[in-house]
Amino acid sequence: MEGLPRNRTQTTQRIVEALEEEINEWGWQAVAVNRIAQKAGVSKTLIYRYFGSLEGLMVYYLKMGKLFPVFTPQVLDHLRPLQKSDLARIWYRQVIQTYRSFRSSKPARELLKATLSESDPTADMVSEALDEELTRLVEQLTFVEGTDTKAVSAVILGAMSYLTIMAQNNRTVVGIDLRSEAGWERIEEAVKLLYIGVNKLAVDSDEVTLTSQLVNAIDDQWP
């Protein structure tokens, strides 16, 4: 919302916060524009004017940078690896951080659950927006040529999405309790091992090359 008048920026923030509260209370399927408007202290007409529809508001929420990081070119330059052996750390850190964010936010998890719904226009828009954001994230952090990073990412991110949904439903998977931190520590260690294995294949392959390098070091900013 950069560049917009201050009052519109503040109003948009109130609407987004009201949407989060609404999803947290009612789940994504029972969200109501009237309640969002009441919580935000605005008219329903204003929400439609700003976002076009309830679905448009949800898509805006998904794309505003709260759930998926938006890297500037400068940050990407600092993240760019010097050698292929650095790739695993970049990949697994971002995957782990992204899904920690989902697990800590019920509204985010609710929207993730929407991707499993069939024949629902709202779910279709949410699913498309989520996929666009994941695709953007993967494309930004690829840093290599000569391998199908999208297919690899689809397998791992798809699995992490499924596990996150199962955790919200208080389920176990292969005997691992996804309601516990100990269970998720095991999952995160597995994610690291998978990316390290994929990274080793990339390092050993003559067909895989790094994209052009613009900096002299990796900025170690992720936890």
Descriptive terms for the model:
single chain, Homeodomain-like_sf, two-stranded antiparallel sheet, 223 residues, Arc Repressor Mutant, subunit A, mainly alpha, 2 domains, 4 strands, TetR family transcriptional regulator, transcription cis-regulatory region binding
Describe this structure in words.
The structure is a single chain. The chain is mainly alpha-helical and 223 residues long. The chain folds into 2 domains: 6-54, Orthogonal Bundle (Arc Repressor Mutant, subunit A); 73-210, no CATH class. Helix content is 65%, strand content 4%. It has 10 helices and 4 strands, in the order ααααααααβαββαβ. It has a two-stranded antiparallel ribbon. α6 (87-104) runs antiparallel to α10 (181-204). The radius of gyration is 19 Å and the shape is globular. The protein starts with 5 loop residues before the first helix and ends in a 13-residue tail after the last strand. It holds the Pfam family TetR_N. One of its GO terms (molecular function) is DNA-binding transcription factor activity. InterPro entries: Homeodomain-like_sf (IPR009057), HTH-type_TetR-like_transc_reg (IPR050109), HTH_TetR (IPR001647).
